[in-house]
Design goal:
253 residues; alpha+beta; Chitinase A, domain 3; Serine Threonine Protein Phosphatase 5, Tetratricopeptide repeat; 3 domains; 4 strands; rotamase; repeat; isomerase; FKBP4/5/8-like
Length: 253
């Protein structure tokens, strides 16, 4: 009962997803997303807006509308991997429709789950070369991680929130670079380093971006710090060597 979701409204759905052999690869008792934002598979993006609250639907999705040609490799033991070119059968229950994304405070555990889910969706888009969609998913992940909470997180949850924010910001920087936006990529690196000053990935990328801007002295300082943290890194040694050659005056014959 009730109207179908309108553009911009947020939905909560219960989702089960199975392979042709019946193997369960998706199980989410409360998946929250805004149709059109691109942080769920296309079968759900297209199918859920046709539903009414309380309705249960089955969507048989060919692989382009599920996890695409490469499938999906999972980073937790919660669900198995999705094989390449796998069609999926989704059972979807539309639980709730409401205005605006994530307006209500959420427990830290739910913020972590939403953040991880949206970051993994961004990684899916990134692997397919859709860097605009990847960036959108990474920003949605950050919004979930930074959203209001029903209670202060415990020490372990706070640390995990910090780690997820840093991962997301590093991913944002990578997507911005793919889109040719060096200034935005540098800003994402610096935001990651404000949270975790010794994050090696952010230090390396920031050093490379500073070098590209001709800010060699700053780049050397950043890359040396990165080298202290990872002395065996060939990439950092190469970058520092390249900067040293660029700063050295040409020898006279």
């Amino acid at each position: 009962g009730g109207p179908q979701p309108l553009p911009g409204q947020e939905v909560s759905v219960k989702v089960l997803g199975a392979l042709e052999d019946g193997g369960l690869v998706e199980r989410d008792p409360r998946l929250i997303f805004v149709p059109g934002h691109g942080d769920v598979v296309q079968a759900l993006e297209l199918g859920v807006p046709t539903m009414q609250p309380g309705e249960i639907s089955f969507f048989l999705a060919a692989f382009p509308y599920a996890y695409g040609r490469p499938g999906s490799r999972r980073y937790t033991n919660r669900e198995p991997d999705v094989p390449p070119e796998a069609p999926l059968l989704f059972e979807v229950t539309l639980l709730e429709v409401r205005d605006g994304p994530d307006p209500q405070p959420l427990p830290p555990s739910v913020r972590l789950r939403l953040g991880s889910q949206r970051r993994e969706r961004g990684n899916f888009h990134f692997a397919r070369g859709d860097f605009t969609a990847a960036l959108r998913s990474y920003r949605l992940s950050l919004r979930a991680l930074d959203g209001p909470a029903t209670a202060p997180p415990g020490p372990e949850e706070e640390e995990e929130l910090r780690e997820q924010r840093v991962k997301c910001l590093n991913n944002c920087a990578a997507a911005e670079l793919k889109l040719g936006r060096a200034e935005e990529a540098l800003a994402a690196c610096e935001a990651a380093l404000r949270i975790s000053p010794d994050n090696g990935r952010a230090l390396l990328r920031r050093g490379q971006l500073l070098a590209e801007q001709g800010r060699d002295a700053e780049a050397v300082l950043v890359l040396r710090r990165a080298l202290e943290l990872d002395p065996a890194s060939k990439v950092i040694h190469t970058e520092l060597s390249r900067l040293a050659k660029r700063q050295s005056p040409p020898s006279s014959t």
